[in-house]
Specification:
By secondary structure, the chain is an alpha+beta fold. The protein has helices at about 15-20, 60-75, 80-90, 95-120, 130-155, 160-170, 180-190, and strands spanning about 1-5, 10, 30-35, 45-55. It has two domains: about 1-55, no CATH class; about 60-190, no CATH class. Helices cover about 55% and strands about 10% of the residues. A four-stranded antiparallel β-sheet has the order 2-1-3-4, with helices on one face. The radius of gyration is 20 Å and the shape is globular.
């Protein structure tokens, strides 16, 4: 088993760079190989790990991380209005603070409704499957809210350090909902684009 790690552990180096909450400048990337060796089938065996430093580290900008996060959430959160906002943002057709505020307010409204449903679930008014689906949806909506905040700040100041923070919060642990192969392919695609489209509608 081979893993590329930065502060996180993923099988593709670009994906590790995308999901790292830290800037890629000055970071180190390592390849870890793990295996188990067993002589006695009744024994648990011995685990071995070899760590090898890998260079160079894929260079990923904050803008690319934000675009990657947008595309990941577009696939995971099934909401037409939210997906339309992302399509316009990613293509640069509309990155205005006003459009982003509309998306954020929609998500905040859903968050409030979700809180009410969770209260009912706590009183036994919802079944197990309902609460499981609700938990996933709630998690994705919270992540999407972090993205809208990042986009709003990017509309006013592209160098605002909180953009990276909000993007990292949106992506933290995202592999629990997304397939690693799909995430890795998307990371490679976004990283291959050296220039992020400029906004046609700036705030």
């Amino acid at each position: 088993m081979h893993k590329f790690v930065n502060d996180c552990c993923y099988e593709a180096p670009v994906l590790a760079a995308m999901l790292s909450p830290f800037p890629t400048d000055g970071c180190k990337l390592y390849e870890i190989t793990c295996w188990n060796f067993t002589v006695d089938p009744n024994a648990s065996g011995q685990a071995y790990t070899v760590v090898k430093e890998e260079t160079p580290v894929p260079q990923v900008s904050v803008e690319q991380k934000l675009q990657f996060a947008m595309l990941v959430m577009r696939d995971l959160l099934q909401d037409r209005a939210f997906q339309k906002w992302i399509d316009l943002w990613v293509t640069g057709m509309n990155r205005s603070a006003e459009a982003t505020a509309v998306a954020r307010e929609m998500l905040e409204k859903e968050t409030r409704a979700s809180d009410d449903l969770e209260t009912l679930a706590a009183w036994g008014e919802a079944g197990g499957n309902d609460t499981s689906l609700m938990s996933k949806r709630t998690d994705l909506v919270v992540r999407a809210l972090h993205l809208t905040r990042a986009a709003e700040r990017a509309a006013s100041d592209a160098n605002d350090p909180s953009i990276a923070v909000e993007t990292a919060l949106a992506l933290n642990g995202i592999a629990r909902w997304g397939k690693l192969d799909n995430l890795a392919a998307l990371a490679e695609k976004v990283a291959a684009v050296t220039e992020v489209p400029e906004a046609a509608n700036a705030a």
